Amino acid sequence: MLGFPPNTTAFSLFADLFRSTIALYLTMRKIPSFANDTKYIFIASIGNPEPSYAGTRHNVGHRVMDHITNNYWKDHVYKQGPFYLSTKYPNIVLFKSDSTFMNIQGRVIQKHFNQHPKGSQMLVLHDELERPLGKFQLRQAGTSSRGHNGLKSIDGFCKSYQKLGIGIGKPTSGSVSDYVLKKFDSQIEIEELDLKVIPKVIKKLEEVIEVNLQSQVQVNNLLP
């Protein structure tokens, strides 16, 4: 922001004003419609259709999204069409892609992402075999799909997106496909996810969102 470092009170006031202005605009709309000057972070969870596959390892991204909308951010997110928008974070759109199968997510994600202004970013929540249960990893745009069928499908339409993988570990026996389509083995695993991992994932998301919001406030205040 012109004339003020990012941690000053003045900067915080401008950030709050930006939030409230955009949030007011969005809440007055009856259908999904997005401000042309706002570059959104489109946060999408991918998995298989629910409720049929709810609770499976492959759908852990949807589990995170459910915790976001139903628990952690329930006081400031609201449904609008197929999306969730936020009065606290006017620079985000949440989308749970649970209407189709994991290996054909690309077309659905592209269709909904393309409704947003150019310059918007995408972040995908997904299960991650390469990380053990209890861990997660945020990876930047252009990184490998690591053989993940959902990410490979998205890569067919868009390669420039961030990936937030929630670790589910690898099977000690049997096939990977059987492993990811099964539910978590024990209450201990579920508690590890719900009470330890997901809070950390949401904190990381909030950090990403705040950095993006501050950068947009700075750009808007430099405009004539």
Automatic annotation (TrEMBL):
A molecular function GO annotation: tRNA binding
Top EC class for this record: hydrolase
Record key words, sorted: Hydrolase, RNA-binding, tRNA-binding
SUPFAM superfamilies: Peptidyl-tRNA hydrolase-like (SSF53178)
One Pfam assignment: Pept_tRNA_hydro
PROSITE patterns: PEPT_TRNA_HYDROL_1 (PS01195), PEPT_TRNA_HYDROL_2 (PS01196)
Catalytic activity: an N-acyl-L-alpha-aminoacyl-tRNA + H2O = an N-acyl-L-amino acid + a tRNA + H(+)
Enzyme nomenclature, EC number: 3.1.1.29
Family the entry assigns: Belongs to the PTH family.
The protein's name in its UniProt record: Peptidyl-tRNA hydrolase
Biological source species: Lodderomyces elongisporus (strain ATCC 11503 / CBS 2605 / JCM 1781 / NBRC 1676 / NRRL YB-4239)
